[in-house]
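Archive entry. Fields below.
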Amino acid sequence: MRIECPFCGERDHSEFTYLGDAGFRRPDGGGEGLAGRFYEAVYLRDNPAGPHREWWCHSGGCLSWLRVTRDTRTHEILGVELASEVAVP
Amino acid sequence: MRYSLFSLLGQALTGHRGWRPAWRDAAPKPSYEVIVVGGGGHGLSTAHHLAAVHGITDVAVLEKGWIGLGNAGRNTTIIRSNYLLAGNNPFYELSMKLWERLEQEVNYNSMVSQRGVLNLYHSDAQRDAYVRRGNAMRMHGVDAELLDAHQVRSMLPFLDFDNARFPIQGGLLQPRGGTARHDAVVWGYARSASARGVDIVQNCEVTGFLFEGGRIAGVRTSRGDIRARKVALAVAGNTSTVARMAGLKLPIESHVLQAFVSEAIKPLVPCVVTYGAGHFYVSQSDKGGLVFGGNIDGYNSYAQRGNLPTVEDVCESGMALMPAIGRVRLLRSWGGIMDMSMDGSPIIDRTPIEGLYLNGGWCYGGFKATPASGYCFAHLLAREESHEVARAFRLDRFATGHLLDEKGQGPQPNLH
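PREDICTED_STRUCTURE:
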């Protein structure tokens, strides 16, 4: 599995550190149901068999945070974006 | 047919022409009382215990491929009950007790071999942690012995004791731990369940669920709709995918774990050994191959194959522990898909949907749990209450905060 870093080019995935699913965001503010929203963000995952958006850090390279779209059935990398340039859902 | 020395002798005298298939490859009936989804070790163990303990035989086990073709046939066959937490230990000890009588119970040779499981320690702090774990085990009535370096050396003289960075100071031994023949476990439970009237339906993939009045009424499958009063999921690896068809989102990620076997060599490793300064565990099969594994690859995957950096990492750990392993050629490696739960512990519980029950989240420790997992899941299905040793394996523990985090890693599944 090789990931195309926007700065460094195509590199082996052993240079990267995996954080996980990029499909949720930490709830902010207070209000009704905050505990429930935190529970969903911290623990519940879609875990799809297919394209999966996920956070990787090029920790053995330029230290960029990336949002990688990868097919979990084949490990094929479908797209790489800089985390700083994508709107978090 | 009951297997015994006499049946073997009888067959030997008649040219082995009288052996019958060990279980019926059944066609699905229109309805059952209980449908178990997943014909792996856990699903078949559940069916066996439903029939043998609770007398519920109107049961079907639905398997999308062939039984035992998933993680039941991909693990490193280790059995042990050396857990620290009070929510875990009695469950795994029940499993160990069921392993000890498995062959008599199902009349099938599962090759349970209590050759011992030895966890090595390499520092004073790690020794203290193992003393604590060993004491916790003994307080639960589980066997545990703390060995010093001299005792370990007498058992395993070929280890790298004087490694400059991670010298071996000793180990925590569970003498009753060991290995079992994984395929035979599947076949034994299948044979026992089938003989008691359970239908084992292969090549029958669940594609959806039937609902009536908000509760489960059956499953849609590639071989037609099948109705049931209760549907029990035992599909670890694919739990999220199957549960999604019922509208559930779970605290589980799927990850790939690789395992390895070397060419066969003469008897060398007398027990299961785990390296304490990395993640590496090794035992020797009866055929002579060294069976070993290490960490999961660390990213979400359904691919049933991993990547080379993990192969390298596992082999490096093996070399650090026992340099002689470098002389042995690697024969095969393969991958299995693990249900990595958010706290590293399993789930055996009802779901919010009436009539739908969940057994999953086994991370990479499911094989050793096979007997007790089925025993406790059958108990839940038959009696509508959790078995006392599985009460901590609740689905709602993530919402209530009653986590079972044996490793203390937090909600980061690739680190458990």
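CURATOR_NOTE: The domain at 2-85 of chain A is CATH 3.30.2270.10 (Folate-binding fold).
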